[in-house]
Design a protein that fits this description.
single chain, 359 residues, Chorismate synthase, AroC fold, 5-stranded antiparallel sheet
């Protein structure tokens, strides 16, 4: 099993949903950077479960124990290890012999010959995004000190749509991170929340889309082909459980447009080359162009649902039905916003280091 990511900032995630704990080792962090633990706790709380009726009732404080790489509150340059203890597990809700449709239960059983930890999806659980959020909260502190700001909002839940990003600035992005339910148009939030509560009542789930952006990053980050900024972001984002698609800039809408419409025209202003539009989402040829990075990610409806579904008994070979009566999010979108932001922060940090920028 490979759990390594990054070329300069190298990450390794460990643990299982119902094991003793989960965590991450971050290798490559620069020495001498003071960590704001309150900001780390703030972002961890944004992802933590059990905080409202819109999320799973599982209660986890998600307090991070920093085991190495920090001394007197300052990074040492050694690998930084952060661990989060699991406190509120309920393993009896999971049955090894009855894989849940839509989850990794069956594929994990096949790949690891039945030795995988199936409780709460084990190492495949969305719970593993907690250490990813921890790492991202460190990266975004360093990025903010360089004038790089990241934020995201809920663009869609079920059939309900928020407005898309238009005029992106630091105040907007930072303001979104302070919202419990981040949307650009507050009037849209009510219908989205109602949709989540409705599917929960029906023992079902619903998916949605998150739109994320960054400003302040320099032009020239990334490389063509395999080292492109899009490739880096895609490899990180597709590691997030439930994420099923990504589109940069106008994305799939470009299929209905012409080159004359989507090309971002250049112009000079104060001896700087600028763009009048940002249809490409801040990236051309895999390299940042100085405009805001903008992308959208789609998440599938949560796979664990209370409705009866067809499955098989791995022990007897019989066809059976399963209704998951455990705890799960009827919609993972509200808690996934900070995870997507964290993924972007880590990718930008890795690319800045690769470009030799001072960190």
């Amino acid at each position: 099993m490979s759990n390594l990511w990054g070329r300069n900032l190298r990450l390794s995630i460990f643990g299982e949903s119902h094991g003793e704990g989960i965590g991450i080792v971050i290798d490559g962090l620069p020495a001498g950077y003071p960590l704001d633990l309150d900001k780390i706790s703030f972002h961890m709380a944004r992802r933590a479960p059990g905080q409202s009726e819109l999320t799973t009732p599982r209660k986890e404080a998600d307090q991070v124990e920093i085991l190495s790489g920090v001394f007197n509150g300052i990074t040492t340059g050694a690998p930084l290890c952060g661990m989060i203890r699991n406190r509120d597990t309920r393993s009896k809700d999971y049955m090894k012999e009855l894989p849940r449709p839509g989850t990794a239960d069956l594929t994990a059983h096949i790949k690891y010959k039945g030795y995988n930890d199936y409780r709460g999806a084990g190492h495949f659980s969305g719970r593993l995004t907690a250490p990813l959020t921890f790492a991202g909260s460190i990266a975004r502190q360093i990025l903010a000190s360089k004038g790089i700001h990241i934020g995201a909002h809920i663009l869609q839940i079920g059939p309900h749509l928020d407005e898309a990003f238009s005029d992106i600035n630091a105040e907007l992005l930072n303001g979104l991170t302070g919202l419990d339910f981040p949307v650009l148009n507050e009037a849209k939030a009510g219908a989205m929340k109602k949709e989540i509560l409705q599917v929960a009542e029906e023992k079902d789930s619903v998916g949605g889309i998150i739109e994320c952006a960054a400003i302040g990053q320099p032009a020239g980050l990334g490389s063509p082909f395999f080292g492109s900024m899009e490739s880096s972001l895609a490899s990180m984002l597709f590691s997030v459980p439930g994420m099923k698609g990504i589109a940069f800039g106008d994305g799939f809408d470009m299929a209905n447009m012409r080159g004359s419409e989507v090309n971002d025209a250049f112009y000079y202003e104060n001896d700087h080359i600028k763009m009048r539009t940002n249809h490409s989402g801040g990236i051309n040829g895999g390299i940042t162009n100085g405009m805001p990075i903008v992308f959208r990610t789609v998440f599938r409806p949560t796979a664990s649902i209370g409705k009866p579904q067809n499955t098989v008994d791995l022990t007897t070979g019989e066809n059976k039905t399963v209704a998951f009566e455990g705890r799960h999010d009827p919609c993972i979108i509200p808690r996934a916003v900070v995870v997507v932001e964290s993924a972007l922060a880590l990718c930008l940090m890795d690319s800045l280091m690769e470009a030799g920028c001072e960190i």
